[in-house]
Amino acid sequence: MPERTIDFGKFGARGIKGSDAVARKLDELADGIVTPVTVKRGLMARLHYLTRTDHSRQAARDAGLTVTDRTLKAWLAEKRRPSNANLDRIDAAYRQVRRQNVARHLLRRLNAAGGTRVEIHPLNQSQVPRPLQRMVEYRAMNVRRWDRIVEAWAVGDHQGLDDAWEDVIVDLGSQWGQYEYVTNIGFAA
Length: 189
Prior knowledge:
- By secondary structure, the protein is α+β, with helices and mostly antiparallel strands.
- It has helices at 18-30, 40-51, 54-62, 69-76, 84-111, 147-155, 158-169, and strands spanning 16-17, 116-122, 139-143, 181-186.
- The protein has a four-stranded antiparallel β-sheet with strand order 1-4-2-3.
- Helix 6 (147-155) runs antiparallel to helix 7 (158-169).
- The longest helix has 28 residues, at 84-111.
């Protein structure tokens, strides 16, 4: 890790780790159901997504939704409403299964035509005292190989995603440490 970001935010800089920004953007690209799970429509859409096939049911169980078939049938028939803890489990299982289902398609799109152009928006230094601010510019780069990034994102491996993203930003040259924390990372697929 670069020496300047060991104590990130000490002087008021704001931002998030670049790998977290990449994961957030991939989630945005993969997101299918936008209605919250707390609303009937969002809950039913997630339940149908997680139970429509045996494969999706097994993937939901693997993702942490371990309720009986009887309970699932009662939820789908709207005879019972899941508790708040189960709503969180349903939403987490939906996101995990959705990631696994779209990862291959997303990877193909990101690697197409020699890679995808990525915009890196630097950290926010508006709260840092003027003498301590450093010049950090907006950067753009082409990421050619998304395999490790998408694979780590699909299985929820935060450390693996962080390592894969760090290997990518090293291509920025000697300034790569300045982009370990960012306000946003943008790309399209």
